[in-house]
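User: Look at the shape:
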Amino acid sequence: MKLRLLLLPLIALLSSGAAHARELPKTILPSYEPWDAEVVSTFENLLIQDGGRVKPLYTFARFTLLQFSGKTTASFQTADGVDHKLHYSEWLLNVLFQGKVAKDLPVFVVDDSAAVVQIGVSPKKKRDRYSYNEIVTGRAKLAELSAQYAEKQRQYEQSEKDPQYELDRIEGMILTLGRNISSFEYLIGQFGFARKGDVLVNENILPEELKQLARNLNVVEMLDRMPEMTVEQLVQTIRQQPGASEDERMFSGALRLFFFHANSARGVNLFPPQDKDNEVWLSAGDVLLKGLESKEDRPWATEQLSDLQALVDARNESPEAFSRELASFAEKQHSISDPRGEGVYSDLEVQLYRGKYFSNSLLVFIVAFVVMAFSWLAPGSKVGKILIIAAAVLALVGLALNIYGITLRSIIRQRPPITNLYDTVLFITASAVFLGLFIELFTRIGIGTLVAIVSGVLGMFLSMKYEAKEATDTITQLVAVLDTNFWLATHVTIINIGYAAGLVAAIIGVLYLAIRFILTMFGKEAKDFYRVLTRMSYGVICFCLFFSLVGTVLGGIWANYSWGRFWGWDPKENGALMICLWTLVILHGRMAGWIREIGVHMNAIILAIITTFSWWGVNNLGVGLHSYGFTEGVWGALYSSWAILGIFMLMGVFLWFEERGKKAARKDSQKISKKAVA
């Protein structure tokens, strides 16, 4: 039986002597001393195992703050009126080593003040950020409501989304806030065992005598001197039998405090395992329990914990001492992890996020769009042509930034470019931009550049929106079915190129319908220009068919390899089939003369609807073997995008009737002319 099983009943036991949390006033930090740049650099390159992989603390800090705050900086003001903005690495340094400062930083975003009112906290603006000390006054109520709404959400999922169990907007906010506060408390409590009673997380659940004991107890020394005890003896000692002596009561209290620290120090796995064949890293809490469970592991456990103790003590001593101890801790950690082949590309990962290649790519595409828009003020002129070329060059720069970021992600994971939904956004955007620029290379009329720029803006914006909404590390461990580099490099890559082509055809269709609709309103025609756009769309649809068909066949081969059948009418398989069938419908309809220019472009928009459904929608159906990509809120986004595409479809319907009316008028005119001649 593992001693970890004692943690839950122990917390319940400690709660029996808890006092209510006292109300703390809202505060402004009296002063703030920034961290030394060298300390920040050393800290962010420390390694942690999180989400099934070893990564730099830089990445962990980034997505943790993004989860709490909805952004990757922590802003606050000091008493002297100076505004401060902390990078996520600096924020996490404060959380782990300056808990009192971290508790006053407003990082918990609440989108509606009604959520904090329900837990008894004074509201600020309608949407604002709160510090831990501002929320802690309603901590008990928050814990109660969070548990209630978590159970309601569980019932909602188990009942196949019965509406009676669905959380409303405010309930969802309270549940999210409760989880974020709980995660923050675990971060604050990581090194609590080494702080000797200073900044104890959830200290309100500790009786006063244990708080006093925490100020004097050296947990590492206690672990080193701990006698061998069975689980039953530990439980019996903690519970304090009636008539226990003073020494027995003291030892019981020390054990309770030991388990309190072990429970508080879970989640941040900084320690590579002692066993080289073991892939699971340990947190300080795990090390405490491991040392308690086994006398053989105790020397190793006390060594690891002593390193942390020295780090905390050095922080209290001087910035120079802390810098030396942190560098020593980092060197020791890497000396263990490097031979294991873990964290080898952590420097590249820091470079990936520090370089902001994807957000910079979006910025470049936006600038390119502005340049392109200015070219419309002088159509056909030398200046206009120069601006189009400049826009194309900028689009090429945006594409290069995107591809460089994708390449770094592939090297870090040692995988092909696509392993999850976030990757598909980056890859499909790059493919669509490349297609647009490739079209421009042969047409030289600016439409290909415009398609590339629009694809880049929409795709990179979606990637940033997705990352901010999910607020989790996007370099994830592969689900079992994807754990093969060969099929990731063939089926997944090829099918996503097909998706990109389908979306590019739709963008061309939208441009065609919008331009023709506007020109028609002004009584103008541009038949040659319309034909060029139609030829573009036709070629891209052929391209889409080829890659979608090949990708679907390769997917069937993979399914036969993985699941023992080529085709099983899985929703994802059906989505890929729908893309292939609809491209065939368009091409056959065009060849047979059933649809002409307007029909091709309207059907290209329908192709985009099918493509986005196959790309995002089927993952959210919750059925089939491809239901591993569920994303909250996708249906609302899909319905909105389809509604927008529907507006352009209505333009197409108007143009179709207008064209039929002109044809009918011409026929009537010809009949009248013939009668006149006769």
About this structure: Strands lie at 47-50, 53-56, 73-77, 83-87, 108-110, 128-130. Residues 478-664 form one domain.
